[in-house]
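User: I'm preparing a small set of examples for a lab meeting where we compare how different chains pack in three dimensions. I only have the primary sequence for this one, and I'd like the structure in token form so I can line it up with the others. Please keep the answer compact; I'll paste it straight into my notes.
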Amino acid sequence: MSRSKHIPFRVALATSVIAANLAVGQIAAAADQTSDGQWFHGFLHTAQAQKTSRGAGVVVAVIDTGVAHHGDLDAAVSDGLDLTGLGSDDGRTDLVGHGTAMAGLIAASGRVNGIAPAAKIISVRATGLGNGIGAGGRIEEGIRWAADHGATVISISLATVYTPEVDRAIQEAMAADIVVVAAIGNSPPDVAATYPAALPGVVAVGSVDRAGRHSPRSVVSPKVVVSAPGVDISSTYKDGRYSYGTGTSNATAIVAGAVALVRSKYPNMPATEVIHRLTATATDKGPKGRDDQYGYGVINLVAALTADVPPLTPSAAPSTAPSTAPSKNAEAPADEPLNLGILLAGLAGLLILVALIAGAVILASRRR
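Assistant: Understood. Below is the structure token output for the 368-residue chain.
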């Protein structure tokens, strides 16, 4: 969720704002660091994937700290919404830089580049203090607004507390065929999946490093669905600058960009099938199959856009948690009455046969 060296979580005191602004992302002042932080494109073979899709026609809502004006990003950003009442109504105020960095990873085009540069971004500024919005956030309003304004992907690289209102808004978005992507959380301080990533149906994202290994900061949880690069990542930042940092926030924005690529390539594909395509084509890591570090694996952009993936079936539905379906062994007792009945019927038949044979033997002996 947070970028490197953040003080990122649920900033509540005014005295913390300055520290958050200074620490929310290490500014990439050196040109080589900015270039170095774009390593994830080579890792994911983004250039090859973009020959198939660049995200055209897809609207991605970034619910975060706002999206500031930036030369690498402005062409991709449309007017959004400010829920804080402390910035421009269009959501283009970002005092922290976090939301601007997330938008850049999705759709920037310039010195730094996003995964889906032809996608459109709408900024929903849910907090102005940091990337954790706490109990006083209005994230549910932002989700509903995004759904009403054409978003088919919602990217949430922040944490909030659970509320029934947020839960309902997420469920409504998914019912409206929107893919919701959220960060699983960073450890420390998080020790379990954060909300809204922990909610059923949300694509909860973990992060990996340059070698494709699980990042030690990425929360380990049965809620993890997929993973993506999140370590030492550069992107756009406030005041026209560039950021460089680590966290599941980065991985989440990258996965949101991947979803935009798939939705652009397959515009009639339902959200559930889009998610299935991402999980079915992910590069398996760790223990075979889904695990709590990587989920179904690390996203594979090229495969997600080109592989022959069978349609989703109920038995193959991607899950954010281990299946609770009973195993075959658990179902075995249901078969026992049938097996016992067959056995008894067989014994009865055998007894009748024995009785017939015995009768025949007795009759023959009397005739003698």
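A couple of notes for your slides: The radius of gyration is 27 Å. The longest strand covers residues 59-64.

User: Perfect, thanks.
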